[in-house]
Design goal:
With 153 residues, the protein is mostly beta strands. The protein is built from 2 helices and 8 strands, in the order E-E-E-H-E-E-E-E-H-E.
Length: 153
């Protein structure tokens, strides 16, 4: 993965999978700072996230509030002998607060009425993720989420 440390329009979050990751939710995917996951959390793909939307740069948050901005969420799962990667593409929205201090959610809908939504109108949700990637997360593989916002031209 490219070093994006100096790019204000990229945020990188590290997390891990959990034995209860099923990724069966049809309209969202989520990462949380919690270190636990119940079977009911079928949208959660990573726990123990090292950052939350509250940690994101002001420039990143502002760019995400453009309804014409493209936001790419690239999930990279390191399963030791295998690496899986998948990108969910969505867009920004003027109502994205990006201030939650516990979790972040990508959505296929336009729902923005909370502080944890990081993209709307996503082209995939947890249920759409590659099943090998999901199996690796259920085996507690390491997960890196790269969020990149591309402002509208």
């Amino acid at each position: 993965m490219i070093d994006d440390a100096d790019d204000p329009l990229v945020e990188v979050i590290r997390a891990v999978g959990h034995e209860n990751v099923t990724a069966e939710h049809a309209s969202t995917f989520e990462l949380t700072t919690d270190d636990w996951l119940t079977p009911a959390g079928d949208c959660i793909v990573g726990v123990e996230a090292d950052r939350t939307p509250r940690d994101f740069s002001a420039a990143f948050r502002e760019a995400c509030r453009d309804a014409d901005a493209t936001i790419e969420a690239t999930l990279v799962v390191d399963a030791g002998d295998e690496t899986y990667a998948e990108t969910v593409t969505g867009r920004g929205h003027p109502d994205l607060a990006l201030l939650d201090d516990r979790s972040m959610v990508g959505r296929t809908s336009e729902y923005t009425d909370d502080e944890r939504t990081v993209l709307v109108d996503g082209d995939a949700a947890a249920a759409d993720l590659d099943r090998d990637l999901v199996a690796a997360l259920a085996d507690e593989a390491e997960l890196t989420l790269r969020l990149a916002v591309e402002p509208a031209e």
